[in-house]
Design goal:
Length: 142
C-alpha cells in the first residue's frame, strides 16, 4: 500500500506524499538559488572594487592570465566534483562578461566625473552608471 499519515492523522496517497516531498525539495532549491544570487551579487561587487583599483593605478581592465586562471580553477573543480567542465566554462564566460560590462561602466563613470558630464548621458545603463558615479563622488542626475 502506497499511503502514509498526514500532519493531521489523515491517510495520504502516494501522490500527496510525492507532492509534499517535491515542495520540500523546491523550497531547498529556492534557498540555494537565493544564496547563488547573493554570491553573484557579492562577486560583482568585489569586481567593482577591483575595477576602481585598476582605474586608480591605471592597470588594464582585461587581464587574460587572470581569466585563464579562473577558467582553470573552474575546470579542476568540475572534474573533482563530477560536473561538466563545459558548463562551468560557459557559466564563467557569462560571469566574466558581466564583470567586464560593469568595469566598462566604471571607466565611463570616471570619465563622466572627470569631464563633469552628468550621468544621465550614460546611455542604457544609466541607473548603474549613476550608482557607480555616486560611489566615486561623480555627478549624477539628482
Amino acid at each position: 500500500m502506497n499511503e502514509s499519515m498526514g500532519d493531521k492523522g489523515q491517510m495520504l496517497g502516494g501522490s500527496d506524499v510525492g507532492e509534499r516531498e517535491l515542495a520540500d525539495l523546491r523550497a531547498e532549491l529556492d534557498g540555494i538559488d537565493d544564496r547563488l544570487l547573493e554570491d553573484v551579487r557579492a562577486r560583482i561587487e568585489v569586481c567593482t572594487r577591483i575595477a576602481h583599483l585598476k582605474q586608480r593605478y591605471t592597470i588594464p581592465v582585461m587581464q587574460p592570465r587572470r581569466v585563464g586562471a579562473v577558467h582553470e580553477h573552474a575546470h579542476r573543480y568540475a572534474l573533482d566534483h563530477d560536473l561538466s567542465p563545459q558548463f562551468l566554462h560557459d557559466l564563467y564566460d557569462l560571469l566574466i562578461s558581466e564583470t567586464c560590462r560593469v568595469e566598462d561602466l566604471i571607466v565611463v563613470s570616471e570619465e563622466l566625473r572627470t569631464n563633469s558630464v552628468p550621468a544621465e548621458n550614460a546611455g542604457p545603463d544609466r541607473a548603474l552608471t549613476e550608482r557607480i558615479a555616486a560611489d566615486i563622488g561623480g555627478p549624477s542626475t539628482d
